[in-house]
Structure formats: structure tokens, C-alpha cells
Amino acid sequence: MGIERTLSIIKPDATERNITGVINRVIEDAGLRIIGQKRVHWTFEQAQEFYEQHLGAPFYPDLCKFMSSGPIVVQVLESDDAIAKYRRIMGATNPVDAEPGTLRRRFAISMQQNSVHGSDSPASADREIALNFAPDEIVG
Q1: Beta bridge partners of 10
Q2: Within 13 A of 30's CA, how many CA atoms are on the CB side?
């Protein structure tokens, strides 16, 4: 597939439990390089913009409220086939369906509080990275 980039978010449920380092260890052990990283606290409006593709979905307001409820860690990951690789180590959105050993199976509290987010396509990765990082903040 070649070298690509993806956005990773360590969500408020994980930052609250102080497990960002454990999650990043799994990411790095899987061969993904963290080439941009910052801890931020989104406003409700920032969460709305990020998740605008879900506008109108019944879970949209609660998702935006949750993602703006506390600090998150946004990261740019890079490797061969980064999007698929990160999605494999994250596991299924619903932690009950996630494979053993995946981040969501290990750390999720619920389907919404599932500890991590990752881009689902190259177009999403480009959009999500641009929403969260200036080009000079990505320093691989």
C-alpha cells in the first residue's frame, strides 16, 4: 500500500483514566510512528465540525457532548498501510465485537466511550488531520 498517514484520537474516557501511554505503546509496538501529537480540549462546536458526517444521526448530539467533555490526544500516525493497520489494532467500534487484544476490547467502557478513534479512509484521514494539525506540527 505504501506509506500513509492517519489520525488517531485518544478519547476523553481514556485520558481521564490516564492510559494514553499504554495506548501509545500498543500503537508504536504495531509499527506505527507518531509524527504529530497534542493534548487538546475540543469545544462542542469543534466536535460538531469533526463529526459533521453524522449530523442528523440519533447519537450525534451525545457524541459531540462526550468528545468535548474532557481532554483528548490527537495524533498523526504514519506507516505502510497506516489506516488499515491502525483500524486493526483499534478493533470494532462496539467493544463487545472487537477482537481480543485490540485497543477497544482492552480499554473501552462502552460503544461511545471506546477509548480511540481512527480515520476510516484516505480522504477522511486528510480531512481529519487538516482539522487538527497545521503542516508544521507534523514533524515525522
Answers
A1: 73, 116
A2: 25
Q: How far apart are CA 96 and CA 84, in angstroms?
A: 20
Instruction: Tell me if 37 sits within 8 A of 28, measured CB to CB.
Output: no
Any residues with CB less than 8 A from the CB of 40 and at least 6 apart, and which?
A: 71, 72, 73, 74, 132
**Class in CATH terms, 3-41+72-137:** alpha beta
Which residue is it, cell 483528548? 72
Strand (E) or helix (H) holding 75: strand 72-80
For 51-103, the pLDDT digits (tens) are: 999 999 999 999 999 999 999 999 999 999 999 999 999 999 999 999 999 99
In the three-class reduction of DSSP (H, G, I as helix; E, B as strand; rest coil), residue 125 is classed as helix
Where is 6: in which H helix or E strand?
strand 3-10
Known active-site residue 41 = no
What is the C-alpha to C-alpha distance for residues 69 and 47, in angstroms, rounded to an integer?
10
Q: Which of 5, 11, 104, 117 is catalytic?
A: 117
Does pTM top 0.90 for this prediction? yes
